[in-house]
Amino acid sequence: MLELQSDAASEVALDEGDREAIDAGLLRVLLKRQRFSSSTSWLGFGFMAWLMQDAVAVDYLAGWVGCMVLLELLALGLLGLLRRSLGAAVQRRRWLHGLTVLFFVYGAAWGSATALPGLWNDATLLQVILVCVATVALFSIHNLSTYWPMLLAFCVGVATPLWGMGLVAASGAPQVLWALCAVLMVLLIQLYGISSYAVHRHDIEGRVMARKLAQQLKQSNQELTEALQHVQRLATLDPLTHCLNRRALMDALQQEERRRSRCPVALGIVMLDLDHFKSINDTHGHAVGDAVLVAAAARVRARLRETDLLARWGGEEFVCVLMQVHDESLMAKAQDLCSHLAAAPLVLQPRALTVTASWGIALWEAGESIQACIDRADAALYRAKRAGRNQVSR
Questions:
Q1: What is the mean pLDDT of residues 130-142?
Q2: How far is the CA of 309 from the CAs of 265, 304, 335, in angstroms?
Q3: pLDDT over 50 (residue 5)
Q4: How large is the average pLDDT for residues 8-16?
Q5: Mean pLDDT rounded to a whole number for the chain
Q6: Helix axes 148-168, 89-111, angle to 10 degrees
Q7: Domains with residue ranges and CATH for the chain
């Protein structure tokens, strides 16, 4: 089963629209996670400020906290603008570039906590703050990995103050070690971030492909349904006259026969055979003969109700099934069809041809099989032929 799903998915090619949907899906994950992070990060830097209140001057600490609050508000605003422009590629890229720059500054603000004056005088507190900053950087894998440039910018921002202190510190100073650790941290976070990005992209790509495959399957099913309906129509219709064929008519009559066992059904059979049709074929050719059959079927069909049935029984012979009729109305309808068929030429080329038919009718009697009723109508048709054609017999 898994192999079948894999094979089906491999046949779904991703187009530009699908790639846009994947990118938008990745950004939705980023927006959801980062909006939550930006709304709650005050707990983190608030806790750090509380830890540093005795070691760092109030002015420096207040400035750092104010900077963090301002950057959080800017981040929330840009994230909102990005969310509203997910469907517009140009605007989306613009806000992403802005957010990437902002997150570099934001990361540098987090990292600058390690450079606040007075902190390096307390080794234990310094280590705690360094662990807090490293934890924030590690959390960025979860928050920002769906857009790698932003993850890289944030981590580089976090490490920049440490790198700056390492560059100006004397050889062998602790700042140099922490700067090297920051390099290692950034590299490890990027490795894990790339791996996390691949997992997220694969997941979202799978959903997009599944939706696309579902759409294709739906379309294929619709096309198959239409094709089956077309085949069913072809199986039930005569290809020349588009009347029911003989088998379809018998299926319909057998249904009526089963229905009659539950409730009375008033039904009449009218059989007609075009007069002298063989001579039309012999004199004018089969193309004209076919045109006569088509025109005769159309003329008879035009006089029937929607509930009545018309089928080509074979050759130039047709059967009409009239619903809800009695003996007099069946005869009247058959005579109307007979006169209407002969009232005007059926074809005009190569010359006008007026065609008549012989008609046999039978009313379906109680206790009688439908085949017996058809046989009686067929016998009546031949009586009409023997009586001179172009007439109705019962």
A1: 92
A2: 15, 8, 17
A3: no
A4: 59
A5: 89
A6: 30
A7: 2-216 (no CATH), 246-393 (3.30.70.270)
